[in-house]
Predict the structure.
Amino acid sequence: MWFHLSGVVRAPAAVPPCSEPERLYRVTVSFDRCKITGVTCSCEARDIFWCQHVVALALYRIRNADSVRLRVPISETLLQMDRQQLQKFVQYLIAEHHTEVLPTAQRLADEVLQARSAINRICGAPDPTAGPPPDAHHAWHLDEQQVRFILVII
């Protein structure tokens, strides 16, 4: 089963004499078939290990499973909206993240308005909250040091 966990992790202010203020980090963790398949964090740490904010969000979800709100995929939510609600949703989304998404939103709008564009020849649209695409690569990593064989003779 596929899940997408997202949240905001608050890093407390540094202890004096450092005067670093409290910071907020946007974190996402994607799961597929009981394994983590991807993580992002606005701290932009680029390391082989997950940053402390990703670990904090994962631990919070594990320790507070009953209080984390589960939602249907965004495509299901969009189906429940009428035209006015969809327009309001898109406009607020673009307004809130205009510097990051406005060029992409304009390009996609142009493609959707062209009847013969590639985007209009495809049924449906991608939904990152509804699971991976059928052609997604799924790799398991095996630590051979942790594998133990048990021989049972009956």
